[in-house]
Amino acid sequence: MQVGQSTTHTASQRRRIIVASFIGTAIEFYDFYIYGTAAALVFGQLFFPSFSSTAGTLAALATFAVGFIARPLGALLFGHWGDRLGRKSMLIASLLIMGGSTVAVGLVPTFDVWGVWAPITLVVVRFLQGVGLGGEWGGAVLMATEHAPEGKRGLYSAFPQLGPAVGFIIGNLFFLILNTTMSAEAFLSYGWRIPFLASAILLAVGYYIRIKVAETPVFEAAMQQREQSKVPMLDLVRSQPKVLILATLSFILAHTLFYTVTTFCLSYGTSVLGVSRTSMLLSALVAAAVMGVATLYFAVVSDRLGRRRVCMVAAVAAAIWAFPMFWLIDTTSGPLIGLALIGGLLCFAMLYGPMGAFLPELFRVRFRYSGSSLAYSAAGIVGGGVSPLVATDLLATTGASWPVSLYLVGIALVCLFSLLGLPETKEDDFSDGLVSSNTIDESEAAA
């Protein structure tokens, strides 16, 4: 019997792990996404008032991008100690950093009060948000998958993967309620701060749950076998550089799809097409709910059909949907906009669902936290940080949405060709520190 499927941890304890990984990612992605919503809706006016409307939006989205630039630093930091000391302690630390930074955003004075220090402070706390989230995703999926029974890693990894959908829904509901119950002046004055300050409550709940979880049996076995690496990142780069690069490139599309749909399209619909904020938020809310169900479905499907196969279908689907999505949005019809966003997030879910198990399976246990976290976070720089900026600039330069669609097609092709260079992993031995047939060290293969 493999270590990861042993009776060391009971079914009840595994359920507790699933709940902890799910709630933690939901809270942290709530924190991350409310910033994106606020950046698209009000930050340009509040922190860059001397800029034009387009320049202000670009500047606000640039502060949004800072979080993605910080993610790899968080991945390096938390990955190193997560591979050295364990998954649990790093998950608690990432939650505290992320939650504290989010509350701080709600306290930052605007440009009218603090002048240039206001956007500077905003960038600093956004950077800390990125550091926290850089360590969150990898630790959460490892906490789930390293407890998973044989043949169910996709299913178990789906629960932390539901965090983005739930976090986005909660954040969007918050903004939707505020937008419909407050005047525009009140929302601009103080209403936008409420979702950030409310994160303090979520932080306390998440901390309470995570402090009670157990370390994963896979990591405990690695400690007993002295499989830990002294410098996990160096070990990773020496052993699996090709896998790291291809895994990173394959994940860019997931970030690009999500943030194009939820951040750029929100700004595009309200600022350029004149669609009401309520209509856009409702459409995004429905799309995110569909995305959550689809994420779970495609994660389970990947246990049967394989991770790579499902992800490749997702890349093709994203390329096909890139143009129709904006054709539908350009109609300014609420139902058609909803259909456009649902299609985009379905493509995202088809890729994102299997990735929760796929990325950890690609890397050896001694640097698995570092490898999966870095691939995820580095992909976010381009997909989540740069893509909304590129889309906004393409729209401002050409005055049309088709260049944005073309950009999405290009990212989808990068994903597809990267996946062709990666192995299928669903049958790999995940529980010990030994090299499996597909996750073999590239240095050893070359020799």
Descriptive notes:
The protein has 447 residues and is mainly α. It is 80% helix and 0% strand. The chain has 19 helices and no strands.
Would you tell me the overall average pLDDT? 83
The Cα radius of gyration reads 21 Å
Oligomer: single chain
How many angstroms does the end-to-end distance come to?
31 Å
Order of helices and strands: HHHHHHHHHHHHHHHHHHH
- Counting helices, strands and paired strands, the structural category is mainly alpha
Number of strands: 0
Helix content: over 70%
Shape: globular
- Outline the biggest β-sheet: none
How much of the polypeptide forms β-strand, as a percent range?
Answer: under 5%
* Number of H/I helices: 19
**Poorly predicted runs:** 1-8, 432-440, 443-447
Relevant terms:
447 residues; mainly alpha; 0% strand; globular; disordered N terminus; disordered C terminus
Quick synopsis:
With 447 residues, this protein is an all-alpha fold. Helix content is 80%, strand content 0%.
Detail the topology: elements first, then pairings.
Blueprint: H1 11-47, H2 53-85, H3 87-105, H4 111-114, H5 117-145, H6 153-161, H7 163-181, H8 184-189, H9 194-197, H10 199-210, H11 217-224, H12 232-239, H13 241-272, H14 277-305, H15 307-329, H16 334-362, H17 368-398, H18 402-420, H19 442-446
